[in-house]
Amino acid sequence: MSGKVLMKGNEALAEAAVRAGCRFFFGYPITPQNEIPEYMSGRLPEVGGQFIQAESELAAINMVYGAGGAGARAMTSSSSPGVSLKQEGISYMAAAEVPGVIVNMVRGGPGLGGIQPAQSDYFQATRGGGHGDYRTIVFGPATVQEMVDVVGKAFELADKYRTPVVILGDGMLGQMMEPVVLPEPIDPASLPPKAWATTGTGGRRPPVVINSLYLDAAECEAMNRRLQAKYREICAREQMAEIAFPDSEYFVAAYGTTARICRMAIQEARARGHRVGLLRPVTLWPFPAEAFETVIGRAKGFLTVEMSLGQMVEDVRLVVAGRAPVSFYGRTGGVVPSSDEILIEIEKMVEGGGSM
Amino acid sequence: MRLAVIMAGFGGQGVMSMGQLLAYAGMFEGKEVTWLPSYGPEMRGGTANCTVIVSDEPVASPVETKPDACIIMNRPSLDRFEGAVVPGGLLVINTSLCDKPASRGDLRVVALPATDLAAELGDVRVANMVALGAFLAVEPVVQAASVVDALKKALPAHRQNLIPLNERALALGAETARAQLTA
Questions:
Q1: Residue of A128, A147, A188 lying closest to A36 (CA atoms)
Q2: Which residues does chain B have within 8 Å of residue A176's beta carbon, measured at their own beta carbons?
Q3: How confident is the model at residue B45 (pLDDT cuts 50, 70, 90)?
Q4: Which residues contact A54 (CB under 8 A, 6 or more apart)?
């Protein structure tokens, strides 16, 4: 247990961000993620960083745009209704190719919804979310440790591809405590210089401009083609998934905390003699199509389980492309599916009830 | 070994910290643990509860709808959680604030006036430790000494003076539970 500490998901995520070199946090309060800004407000001043409670979500994301544009590692966090408000800024960051990390501790929606855990922002996160032809890299961690691990990865990829990165948690993951091993801190001064950042010319070079306005349609299209080329590279290189019991005949596809409940149901199903495995996307975009391809040859069926009424299942169907039945089970609005409910759905799938 | 316990009571009874101490203690002993709180409006003054799982294997789901045990600190919590406990499971009931006995006959029950016992020790705030001590006497999923270690880590320097009181509370809860079980 050496080096393990017991931490709340939200606090572990915040500490991991500081250790990943994040020195700027801008946010506006909303349950169930308030421990992130609370932690950052105390922690960032200790490492020479800046915490600002903005006047709104819109202000907060545009502060991330500004800090990221100046080359810093910056983050904001919120929960579903607040993340909707940030979408304009995320679209601007995608177009202007400004890195930044956006955390969404998803709660029940639509509208103000509730404060209990949900996964109903999958479409918003994986399809861009704001206006325009863009994508954000999206992580869907399942444990407090994995949340810590993907924070470092999120900042790394945000810088590497100059793109906003979203971490999609949920209220449960943010509020629960688990033992974690935190990474060694990165000194932001040790990170590679960013020639594109607006750091001041010092009179030695022409100014750099960060912009998302292209009034010439051909230039705007060229910007879009550049973004799409980058997204293709991300899809080719950055897919992450876990497959438990890869030699199974049936698979449950689920991410985040739902995948943990599915794992419990799968253990019970296997104890009853069913050959069922778990296919758990860790990156939700790029969707881990390659992991599905490794099992599709022998898969007799997939069951997608989500805390939504059917969002990721569309990506599963796109990847499976009719080669096996894909069924779906979901609870929403903050209701968490029980492992017993999932077990019933697994048995339906195994007994041949899966529908295309 | 895998044990899931739900702890429930009024906000302010130390239900959340009791759960955290159990989770810390499990971690100190090298076990896998999760602590999942209710975080709805109840944490602003109504009933609060948390689920702690201590296991030899990585914990799949932190949610448990059929706990092995419940520590019930008040009457509404008995009404809410008694039906959920697995047959043969354990109920620890704080009779100081729960005037109703358990209605199921298929559970092991330890009923003790945790709040009154804590008051006798000089501080009602250690009622949670009395209840936790009783629980651990029946389900020794961690050593009581590990809970004390956890408390030493969790308490700030100016509160370390409370550790002997908490140790007495754990011991008193354990003694009371053992006396009931052998009676």
A1: A147
A2: 34-37, 62
A3: low
A4: A26, A27, A28, A60, A63
Rounded CA separation A148/A95 (Å): 28
Chain B residues within 8 A (CB-CB) of chain A? 20, 23-24, 27-28, 30, 32-37, 39-40, 59-63, 65
Using a CB-CB cut-off of 8 Å, the residues of chain A touching B63 are 172, 257, 261, 336, 338
Q: Does residue A263 sit at the B interface (CB-CB below 8 Å)?
A: yes
Number of Cβ within 10 Å of residue A190's Cβ equals: 7
Beta pairing partners, A343? none
Q: What are the residue boundaries of the structural domains of chain A, listed by start?
A: 4-200+225-237, 241-353
Is A47 an interface residue toward B (CB < 8 Å)?
no
Q: Is the ipTM of this complex over 0.90?
A: yes
Give the three-state DSSP class for A353. helix
Instruction: Kindly identify which residue of chain A lies nearest to residue B33, measuring between CA atoms.
Output: A178
Measured distance CA(A298)–CA(A123) in Å, rounded: 29
Containing B123, the helix (H) or strand (E) segment is none
Distances (CA, A) of A238 to A158, A186, B125: 12, 22, 51
At residue B181, the pLDDT reads 82
The CATH number of the structural domain formed by A241-353 is: 3.40.50.920
Positions of E strands within A31-114: 50-53, 74-78, 100-106
CATH H superfamily, domain A4-200+225-237: Thiamin diphosphate (ThDP)-binding fold, Pyr/PP domains (3.40.50.970)
CB-CB under 8 Å, A263 with B39: no
Residues of A in contact with B60 (CB under 8 A): 260-261, 263-264, 267
The neighbouring-strand residues paired with A6 are A179
Give A262→chain B minimum CA distance, Å.
8
**Local mean pLDDT, 10-residue blocks, chain A (356 residues):** 86 98 98 97 98 98 98 98 98 98 97 95 97 98 98 98 97 96 97 95 92 97 98 98 98 98 97 98 98 97 98 98 98 95 97 62
Helix A80-96, helix A57-69: angle, nearest 10: 30
**Contact A340/B at CB under 8 A:** yes
Strand partners, A170: A106
Residue B176 near residue B96 (C-beta atoms within 8 A) = no
Residue A325: Cβ within 10 Å count: 18
- B2-182 CATH, one of 3.40.50.920, 3.40.50.80, 3.40.920.10, 3.40.50.2300: 3.40.920.10
Which residue among A1, A116, A336 sits closest to B28, beta carbon to beta carbon?
A1
Nearest to A253 by CA among A294, A303, A290, A292: A303
Q: What's the confidence (pLDDT) of residue B16?
A: 94
* Cβ neighbours of A264 in B, within 8 Å: 60-61
